[in-house]
Amino acid sequence: xxxxxxxxxxxxxxxxxxxxxxxxxxxxxxxxxxxxxxxxxxxxxxxxxxxxxxxxxxxxxxxxxxxxxxxxxxxxxxxxxxxxxxxxxxxxxxxxxxxxxxxxxxxxxxxxxxxxxxxxxxxxxxxxxxxxxxxxxxxxxxxxxxxxxxxxxxxxxxxxxxxxxxxxxxxxxxxxxxxxxxxxxxxxxxxxxxxxxxxxxxxxxxxxxxxxxxxxxxxxxxxxxxxxxxxxxxxxxxxxxxxxxxxxxxxxxxxxxxxxxxxxxxxxxxx
Length: 271
Known about the structure:
With about 270 residues, the protein is of the alpha/beta class. The chain has helices spanning about 5-10, 30-40, 65-75, 95-105, 120-125, 155-160, 175, 215-220, 240-250, 265-270, and strands spanning about 5, 15-20, 45, 85, 110-115, 150, 165-170, 195, 230-235, 260. It folds into 2 domains: about 5-125, Oxidized Rhodanese, domain 1 (3-Layer(aba) Sandwich), CATH 3.40.250.10; about 145-270, Rhodanese-like domain (Oxidized Rhodanese, domain 1, 3-Layer(aba) Sandwich), CATH 3.40.250.10. The protein is built from 10 helices and 10 strands. A 5-stranded parallel sheet has the order 1-5-4-2-3. Strands 8-7-9 form a 3-stranded parallel sheet.
């Protein structure tokens, strides 16, 4: 159960830890933290995707190390046995990246969920929002890395020859095919050799909820002969929307463990 519905969260709001992981593309000039301060789901904590990624590096949204992750989560007051619901108010469904991070660092996948439809659906249904500051009691969170859930550039390069896994890119067709320039400076246009493209928004309905399993299967069958395949690695521009595809695929393949190329095109496309 990687997704929970708004009605479920409303009924269980006091028994879960709620995280707002709203992140916006730089060109939108929106600020997730400032929006959170104005309104958020009651009891929710803000997860700053930029600040909680690896610092002093040119690549965006790279995973921090284990010690840094334990400090981040402990400061949020989250415990190892907490059930977590993550949401966002973003067009790129950034909550999925936070979902992936928790799973990568060993939180029980059965306890980590994304709110289907996010804050937009919550507000549309006239459910309660607040600007109250959520009180936090520091925890002592412990983690372990599931390093098999992330691929590095060397592994991507080697795979072009050996083809041990399939790489699926979540960017738009135009970016994947090199027909438009990349939004980030210093990157060439194009894609990883032998990779496939499923734009992440194909997995979403107009209201930003995930499509049903039948529709998702049809979408992934455009790249995969068998939707039970496990050796799938997702990539994108900067490691955010790759996680949207990873979650969508896990909805139709319950044996799949999410795996992404963390550097994504921000690394592979460097000029």
